[in-house]
Amino acid sequence: MREYLLVLFVTAAVTYLLVSPVRKFAIVAGAMPPVRARDVHREPTPRLGGIAMFGGLCAGLLVASQLTTIGRLFIQSADVRALLSGAGIMWILGVLDDKWGVDALVKLGGQMIAAGVMVWQGVTVISIPVPGVGPVAVTPTQGMIISVALVVVMVNAVNFIDGLDGLAAGMVCIAAIAFFLYSYRLWIGYGVNDAAPAVLFSAVLIGMCLGFLPHNLHPARIFMGDSGSMMLGLMLAVAAISITGRVDPDLVTAVTGSQTATVHALVPIYIPLLLPLTVIALPLADLLLAVVRRTWAGKSPFAADKQHLHHRLLQVGHSHSRAVLIMYFWAALIAFGTVAFSIANTGRTVVLAFAGLCLIGLVVLLMPRFRPHAPRAVQAIVPPRYRKARRSAEDDAVETAGEAPEAGEEPAGAPAMAELSAKDKALLSRVGSGATAVGARGRTKS
């Protein structure tokens, strides 16, 4: 564990330190596209944050190659080299898109090429464990299709949720932590050596996200761009592929002593790739909804809009920071709930805790819909949104009858000077300022 923590901290530190010079480079290079209609930020922000994240990835893997235990992976497995080659292709594609823009179909083709390069080097699904049957081997063609599809889906899922400050990095970090705990337990607890690459990739992925998040939280100083979001999705997919289909249930049965206990211990991977999909359940749901929504409207599935899950949270009434925290909460609940179900001896406790947390999450999610007014005695200490506006019956009668206000008073609903038309301003300049002039003009017009 200490070696993995060292790799994690080195990756996070290098990523954090590289962000500032990368931000200056992005500004000089002009990688600051104007604010689009679907964006939620108000001023141009530099991209290319993926450059710093790629530097952290290389630094973390370099340190890992020099360690005693983790260093064996670089000799015994080709997964690390495959990850570097695929991540490098995806990173270059993302940098080009952040600076000049790349067509959606070209981007999809590049994603498939990056996935194909990794499959060619051995990162592919070999078998699918089935309860009561054991590992079911798949043909090389089937394994290639499953692996490429998983990479493309995860890459675009992470890319789709990169719409709020800190959202993509935080959700991927949560998913990587859940995957790290699960794969580490398989490796150490059950002696599944094929889970070791997934542990390393998850640790590096956590470090990349933690190092970038301080610069990306609201208000963000820099965006990761496609160079970062696509690379994060690819790394999460590689961690999933490197463990799925390589875990022999017989190894776990030798430790648990029964096939029933083995089925429970391996619940997250008995359905093909279940755990990798649950840890990104929200991004995946957002991706599927976006494809259905755009296709139903007769648009391209890659056409951008402002109807993603995080956009809807803002429309409901949540603030930017609260929307991000809500997405964090649901991502952690689904990911860690799946891991907890595979660890706990009984699923009843996990199910009850999951249901209780879901109820709390729903209350927080729907909170903007309900704005109860606090009692008058405590209105001085509650937020303004919960204070009841004080309006007397006389005020309502005056507003309804359209009576003129008393001398020296500002009439209710009178427009501010900045909101008057040019004609009104010219009239005020001739007759002088004052509430009487504005009120008189309002009565004349009506």
Q: Summary?
A:
This protein is an all-alpha fold and 446 residues long.
Into which percentage range does the β-strand content fall? under 5%
Helical fraction: 55-70%
Low-confidence stretches: 268-272, 391-396, 398-419, 433-446
If helices are DSSP runs of H or I spanning 4 or more residues, what is the number of helices?
20
Q: Which class do the helix and strand fractions yield?
A: mainly alpha
Spatial order of the strands in the main sheet? 1-2
Give the SSE string.
Answer: HHHHHEEHHHHHHHHHHHHHHH
Number of β-strand runs:
2
The best one-word shape is: globular
Instruction: Give a quick account of the main beta sheet: strands, pairing sense, barrel closure.
Output: 2 strands, antiparallel
Mean pLDDT: 76
User: Which value, in Å, is the CA radius of gyration?
Assistant: 28 Å
Termini separation comes to 78 Å
